[in-house]
Amino acid sequence: MAVHSSHASRRWLGIGIAALASLGLVACSSSDPGGAAPGDGGDEGGVTTVTLWAWYPEVQQVVDVFNENHDDVQVDLVNAGVGEDAYAKLRTALESGTGAPDVIQMELSELPSFQVMDGLLDIAPHGANDVAGDYPDWVWEQVSQDGAVYAIPVDAGPIASMYRADLYDEYGLEPAQTWDEYRANAQALQAADPDLYISAFQIGNASNLVGLIQQAGGEPYGYDFENPEDVTIDFDNEITRRVLNYWGDLIDEGLVAAQPYHSTEWDNGIATGAYLTTIEAAWRPGYLSNVADSTAGQWRVAPIPQWEEGDDLQGNHGGSTFAVTSQTDSPEASAQVAIEIFGSDEPWEVGIEEAFLFPVYNPVAQSEEFLERPYEFFGGESANEVFVPAAQSVSPLEFTPFDSFAKSTINEQVAAAIAGEQTMDEAAAEIQRILVEYAQSVGMTVTEP
């Protein structure tokens, strides 16, 4: 396999991916960069101002904490949109050579797509590796490569089973320890009341589905920051087909419902108790508590079911970072912001209490206070007694430089299978074919195990 790591090849490949993105092929659209000048950070009276694009709930409070504790560096928070909206603006800024912020909130899965454009600064020379031990190994591996560090982790989403304890008790159910037991619970519930479902599969939630594939031992992708033209795509395999067919069979047999992600139908099913369980990331309780506030106190958390009894395989959905862009004029100060803005206890009081984030900053995540923290939504129990061990056992998961396109492809093909237009096996094969062709179309060398 050819290995290319020059800046020229990175730039060429990044432009190829970004060009297709501008045509709508990676689920985002081009727009004006949104007002923040590159490296807006400048020195005024010995104070460096660092421009930050971020959209965490209550992130202004976190910025305020940082600014109150620093005299020489101040953060200017800019609302550049959420997720894909902000990423589209960043792509535009990187392509035009101006308009990027100093620091941006970025999901773990999006890092390769901007690193391949030479859009992210290696902050290892600015002390990033000094804090590597503050984070789980599997998370740090996703932000670094061969000593280079492209972002500082903030939060993650270890997946667990959240369930209505009152309804489980009413119908004589116990939290499933294996996926076979989960199916048995679904069958028992349907036999008792055909209007109730053990859960609803979320159509259009590729990130959660990839987390479930990861939890089954799957590794759909392989990508190395240092070899930007090479990618491994391994979606059509026994593990992926096992997961897809498991959920497809449950849907076909009427044992679980199937609803669009974030739809009114899904929300209503959770709120009314029509769906007794949801397999979710650790950051989702904030959303659930809004959707199902009338059932607060009735929910509990259990470990995700295992494919084989006695296993301890975990999956992750989501997680984000702070990355310094290559357009910054203040690399030292920007790296300091990325490292320190969530790198202490005080900002995490906001992150946990107000934003419902699940920290990967070990001094907080592994503290006794966090582990034992009671949650009113979960009946005063500590959900973190489930989430924290899960977060420590997640296997590393690599992403492609075209993750948005990959997710949209997965969503489309799985939805087609649920609609009866193809089988789940055919969906896996079609996802593989489309992703391979896409990668090759932007000049990448593809390995298919």
UniProtKB/TrEMBL annotation:
InterPro entries named among the record's database cross-references: Bact_solute-bd_prot1, SBP
Highest taxon listed in the record's lineage: Bacteria
Entry-linked Pfam families: SBP_bac_1
Record's protein name: Extracellular solute-binding protein
